[in-house]
């Protein structure tokens, strides 16, 4: 520090003992004192900062430093590059939790854990590179208020289900997703992030519940809807009775559990449901017929337009009708075998006439009635008359015909018949009204079978006797025709050889015939045979057969020609299985 002379005030030089300007001695004490004073002032100025203040100063400095460092880190951590890198790492490490934190929907809403799992499955299935275009990194809000935050934004995906029904809902990876949009034709679920979802369709309705599982891949780059191709098979249903014209619609209905659904004049119900169309739910037709109420067997509901054929016969009535049809088969076989319609029961005269026409002249029946087959689907009701009629197709299986003198060689015969029956409410019995052959081609389905007794039927003794008599008469009639013609030829040609094969050599007629030919020759008489009618045939105890015929001839004499008719009685004798005229008993002109 500079010093000054106390006397003249001039600046003193360091090291001088006196002032060079005035010679006044310099007092060093004063200088020391001044030095001490200056030193005290300096020490006073250099006094230490208090510890508390010093801590504050250090803390502020540290905070400022940390803030600067954190700011640099935050900006780096929330940069698009950093977010994208961390998202890629989470995918590589299958870190679903980190993926969920980094992901957002297009509207900025958070992504659920289930959605993140679905995305992970998509990456595993499709590969990381194939799904990169479904995501972008974009600013989303603030990080710690001060910094811009970035998130991985997914393209919104929507699941679409066509023709939705009330009570049907879907879960995606076990989570219900709100409906985005709904109308009569479609319902949209979303938004969802891309992924492969385990989808469960759940239906709960008034008429039952069901569920179905499936997979849905959502990976549309354009944001288009993805169809939920899950046939849940749930729909509202219209029921239709196709034979509505056979029933009284006002007294008929569709029964669904305890509920009876009415039908209109066209056999339709209103739209009911929704139902599960997998056959697990069933309905029945209920109709009122003259023979009582008829409830069908349960019918599976498996279409949204159910067409059904109403049963018009109850089980009890069908059994009764089936018994009537079976009895007809037994009686038919018996009638044909006996060549008589007497065995027929519960049939009309028209049916008897049909059976009578089946009895073949000259052929006889031996066999058994095996069974009647019924096509229940062919049953129809004819309401045109006061007494309703049932029409149906049947097949009767039995044996067949043979000649009277043949040993029966039986084989199976099948007749398909169109039959009509009526029900007598008072007598509570069925009557067969008509029977006629049915001409069908592959349209017969056997739904019910009634077994016959399989009792063997054959021609009765009376039928056999009558058949033999008839056969014998036919043979004798033919023989007498041939005999008359041969006799005329022998007369006209004057040669007995024309007729000798028709006369027994040991009988009286042999000689008479020869003599008669000679007689007519002598008179110049010839004859023309006009016809012979068999009148009676009688078997004699001798084994011979007495035959009476009415025969007509034209008698030509040399001067006249006359037609004459005679009743002639002869006896016949069998020789080597052939008939021969044995004796002329009488012949009288009539």
UniProtKB/TrEMBL annotation:
Domain called TcaA 4th: residue spans: 252-305
Sequence ranges assigned to domain TcaA protein NTF2-like in this UniProt record: 473-584
Pfam families: NTF2_YvbJ, TcaA_3rd_4th, TcaA_5th, Zn_Ribbon_1
Domain Zinc-ribbon, residue spans: 4-26
Entry keyword Transmembrane: yes
Record key words, sorted: Membrane, Transmembrane, Transmembrane helix
Domain YvbJ-like NTF2-like, first and last residues per copy: 322-435
Keyword Transmembrane helix: yes
TM region(s), chain numbering: 55-74
Protein name: Membrane protein YvbJ
């Amino acid at each position: 520090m500079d010093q000054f002379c106390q006397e003249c005030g001039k600046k003193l030089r360091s090291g001088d003992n006196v002032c060079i300007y005035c010679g006044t001695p310099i007092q060093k004490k004063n200088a020391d004192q001044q030095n001490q004073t200056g030193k005290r002032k300096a020490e006073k100025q250099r006094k230490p900062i208090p510890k508390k203040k010093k801590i504050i100063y250090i803390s502020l400095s540290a905070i400022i430093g940390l803030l600067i460092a954190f700011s640099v880190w935050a900006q780096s951590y929330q940069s698009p590059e950093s977010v994208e890198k961390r998202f890629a790492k989470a995918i590589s490490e299958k870190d679903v939790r980190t993926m969920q934190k980094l992901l957002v929907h297009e509207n900025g809403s958070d992504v659920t854990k289930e959605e993140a799992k679905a995305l992970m499955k998509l990456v595993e299935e499709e590969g990381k590179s194939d799904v990169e275009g479904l995501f972008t990194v974009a600013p989303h809000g603030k990080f710690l208020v001060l910094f811009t935050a970035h998130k991985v934004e997914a393209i919104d995906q929507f699941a679409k289900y066509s023709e939705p029904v009330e009570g049907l809902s879907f879960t995606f990876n076990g989570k219900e997703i709100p409906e985005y949009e709904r109308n009569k034709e479609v319902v949209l679920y979303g938004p969802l992030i891309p992924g492969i979802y385990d989808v469960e369709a759940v239906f709960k309705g008034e008429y039952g519940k069901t569920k179905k599982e499936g997979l849905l891949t959502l990976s549309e780059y354009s944001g288009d809807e993805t169809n939920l191709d899950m046939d849940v098979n749930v729909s509202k249903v219209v029921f239709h009775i196709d034979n509505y014209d056979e029933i009284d619609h006002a007294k008929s209905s569709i029964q669904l559990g305890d509920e009876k659904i009415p039908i209109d004049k066209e056999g339709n119900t209103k739209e009911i449901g929704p139902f599960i169309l997998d056959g697990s739910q069933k309905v029945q037709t209920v109709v009122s017929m003259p023979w009582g109420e008829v409830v069908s067997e349960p019918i599976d509901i498996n279409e949204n337009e159910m067409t059904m054929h109403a049963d018009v016969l109850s089980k009890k009535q069908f059994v009764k009708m089936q018994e009537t049809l079976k009895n007809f088969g037994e009686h038919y076989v018996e009638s044909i075998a006996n060549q008589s319609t007497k065995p027929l029961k519960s049939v009309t005269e028209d049916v008897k006439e049909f059976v009578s026409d089946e009895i073949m002249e000259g052929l006889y029946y031996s066999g058994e009635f095996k069974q009647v087959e019924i096509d229940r689907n062919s049953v129809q009701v004819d309401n045109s008359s006061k007494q309703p009629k049932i029409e149906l197709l049947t097949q009767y299986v039995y044996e067949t015909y043979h000649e009277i003198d043949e040993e029966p060689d039986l084989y199976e015969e099948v007749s398909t018949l169109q039959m009509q029956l009526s029900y007598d409410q008072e007598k509570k019995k069925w009557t067969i009204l008509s029977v006629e052959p049915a001409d069908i081609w592959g349209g017969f389905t056997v739904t019910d079978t009634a077994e016959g007794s399989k009792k063997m039927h054959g021609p009765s003794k009376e039928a056999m006797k009558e058949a033999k008599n008839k056969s014998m008469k036919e043979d004798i009639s033919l023989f007498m025709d041939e005999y008359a013609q041969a006799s005329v030829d022998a007369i006209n040609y004057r040669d007995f050889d024309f007729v000798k094969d028709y006369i027994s050599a040991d009988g009286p007629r042999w000689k008479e015939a020869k003599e008669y030919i000679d007689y007519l020759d002598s008179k110049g008489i010839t004859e023309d045979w006009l016809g012979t009618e068999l009148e009676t045939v009688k078997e004699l105890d001798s084994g011979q057969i007495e035959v009476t015929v009415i025969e007509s001839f034209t008698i030509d004499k040399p001067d006249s020609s006359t037609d004459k008719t005679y009743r002639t009685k002869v006896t016949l004798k069998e020789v080597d299985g052939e008939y021969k005229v044995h004796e002329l008993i009488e012949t009288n002109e009539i």
